[in-house]
Design goal:
With 564 residues, the protein is an alpha+beta fold. The protein folds into 3 domains: 157 residues, BirA Bifunctional Protein, domain 2 (2-Layer Sandwich), CATH 3.30.930; 202 residues, no CATH class; 115 residues. A 5-stranded antiparallel sheet has the order 1-5-7-6-4, sandwiched between helices. The chain has a 4-stranded antiparallel sheet with strand order 8-10-11-9. Strand 2 and strand 3 form a beta hairpin.
Length: 564
């Protein structure tokens, strides 16, 4: 994994540095330096895997040639201690492929430099380590001219900024003493609303990871807006003149109250440029609005932000932006009047806000105009105060309505919480009762199972005695039949065979067999009595087993009587 590294420095002639040599080094090329009349050859340098010069669309094609670009930069700077270019050295990631790192470097330069009007000389270095135990160090170099190249096709003036913002004229800074970054501003304005929005999304694909990134890709909204305010022109407020100084005072006073007048336009930068032909103000801001029903509760919207001040589009000829610009011009007019300045407004470009062509009048005319302007300004001020008072009443009314709705919603919330707690308590009781019933049920199931087992055992025992009884009955019937048959034969034999020894022996044998049968019959009767006593103890299907058995015996006797 690559370590974080980001460094920036100036390529300065005063430090003995040569920008053409720097360009030749980062690109690994051979380039002629016309300013010093020498050749810088770094073709033997290894590890350069990609180079490209990135330019805004209006920059001529000749600037994409490295030798041409940096020789022009050298020759346009005449001071022997001039700063020539910014030099960046930025680490890339070992986890990414070479193609991915190159694409990352190009996108960074395009978004951070080129869109701001800067020319960029980009070089990606592989950073291969000779030691296998040490990680590689992929990185890229950036050279960017300090002097801008204008849309008119010439090298412009280096810019000098005078930072102003708050009511006291002090530069607004963050906790570290730096101007507020646009990404920091987006975190400050929208992170809370973003967190609330994402918490409501049940699907992760509908969540917004970065609101800044979302708006940067939007075709409807811009990340921020810029207005340029200029007092006069080069003929009457040229830089270095007393008029230019007065114009600067006007611009400073205008900025001090800008945020107060436009609370929904969050200022991230306010700069007065004093190094060009005429002093002018660059004012950067992020429009925002809260209370939105769709999407984030707080989000960026120029149309909605201007609507909070009552500016609503009436068509292309009178958009909310044009209405707002005219209102701002009126505010500037009031400020100018305090400095005794007569002015007139000219048609301006929609993107910017200008106040042009002012001049001082003769003292008498100046006083008369000033009095007239003051009177008019007083009227405008009174109208605005009435409007502010009306808006304040409207806001207070909306606040009361909101407080009432909030109170009702809070009450409903408390009622819902109480009802929920009651339902939870009832649910707990029902669950406890359900557990008790389930336990009772399983206990009854166990008892029924045990009883069924007892019934099964009794049934088996009854079946056994039923079978014994059936066998005994059959044997009894057989014994009785044999007895009857023996008696009959006895009578016949005794009647027909008197004095016959053989027959007497047969009679004796029959008597012996008859005695055996009587003993067997007696034994079966004993078994039947045992079965009788046993079956008296059981009841099956509501009928005593003995009664059932006796009923069965009766049917068998009937069958025998019927000769079955």
């Amino acid at each position: 994994m690559a370590l974080y590294h980001f460094s920036v420095r100036h390529v300065s002639r005063g430090k003995g540095q040569m920008v053409v040599a720097s360009a030749a080094y980062i690109s690994g090329q051979r380039i002629y330096d016309g300013y010093y009349n020498k050749i810088h050859d770094y073709t033997s340098k290894s590890g350069v895997v990609f180079t490209e010069i990135l330019t805004p669309e209006y920059v001529p094609e000749r600037m994409t040639d490295r030798e041409t670009l940096w020789n022009e930069v050298e020759h346009v700077e005449r001071n022997n201690k001039a700063q020539l270019a910014y030099s960046f050295d930025i680490a890339l990631q070992n986890e990414l492929t070479l193609e991915e790192n190159i694409r990352l470097a190009k996108e960074f330069c395009q978004e951070q430099f080129v869109v701001c009007g800067m020319i960029v000389d980009l070089a990606v270095h592989e950073g291969k380590s000779d030691n296998e135990e040490e990680p590689d160090n992929p990185h890229f170099h950036v050279l960017a001219p300090i002097r801008p190249f204008t849309e008119e096709g010439i090298w412009g003036n280096k810019q000098r900024r005078e930072y102003i913002l708050d009511e006291d004229g002090n530069r607004v800074k963050d906790a570290k003493g730096k101007d507020e970054d646009i990404k920091q501003a987006y975190h400050k304005l929208f992170d809370k609303a973003l967190k609330e929005y994402n918490a409501k999304q049940k699907r992760k694909d509908r969540q917004i990871k970065s609101y800044y990134d979302k708006i940067s890709r939007s075709k409807q909204e811009k990340l921020f807006y810029e207005v340029i305010v200029q007092i006069g022109n080069k003929d009457d407020t040229g830089v270095g003149s007393y008029s230019a100084e007065v114009a600067t005072w006007v611009l400073k006073d205008y900025v001090k109250k800008f945020q107060f007048r436009n609370p929904q336009l969050y200022v991230i930068g306010a700069y007065i440029h004093l190094d060009e032909e005429t002093p002018h103000l660059h004012l950067n801001f992020i429009p925002w609005v809260s209370g939105c029903k769709r999407g984030l509760e707080t989000k960026t919207s120029l149309k909605a932000a201007l609507a909070t001040r009552g500016f609503v589009s009436e068509g292309k000829g009178n958009t909310e932006w044009k209405q707002w610009a005219e209102a701002e011009k009126d505010d500037i007019a009031l400020i100018m009047s305090r400095y005794g300045i007569d002015w007139k407004k000219k048609d301006t470009h929609n993107k910017h806000l200008y106040v042009l062509d002012y001049k001082k009048q003769e003292r008498a005319k100046e006083v008369a105009a000033l009095e007239e302007e003051i009177e008019g300004a007083q009227v405008v001020l009174e109208l605005k105060e009435e409007r502010i008072e009306s808006l304040e009443k409207e806001i207070e009314s909306k606040r009361d309505g909101f407080r009432k709705e909030q109170s009702e919603a809070q009450k409903k919330l408390y009622d819902t919480i109480a009802e929920n707690q009651k339902l939870q308590s009832e649910t707990t009781d029902l669950r406890l009762r359900n557990s008790e019933l389930r336990l009772e049920y399983y206990e009854n199931v166990d008892k029924l199972t045990d009883k069924q087992k007892e019934i099964d055992v009794a049934q088996k025992e009854a079946d056994k005695w039923m079978m014994i009884s059936d066998t005994a009955k059959l044997q009894t019937e057989r014994a009785e039949f044999e007895l009857e048959e023996a008696e009959r034969l006895k009578k016949e034999l005794l009647g027909e065979a008197d004095g016959d020894d053989y027959l007497k022996e047969q009679v004796i044998e029959l008597r012996y067999q008859n005695q055996i049968l009587r003993e067997e019959n007696r034994s079966l009767k004993d078994e039947l009595e045992k079965a009788y006593e046993f079956m008296k103890q059981f009841v099956i299907g509501g009928i005593n087993l003995l009664e059932k058995f006796m009923e069965w015996i009766g049917e068998k006797v009937k069958d025998v009587a019927r000769g079955r």
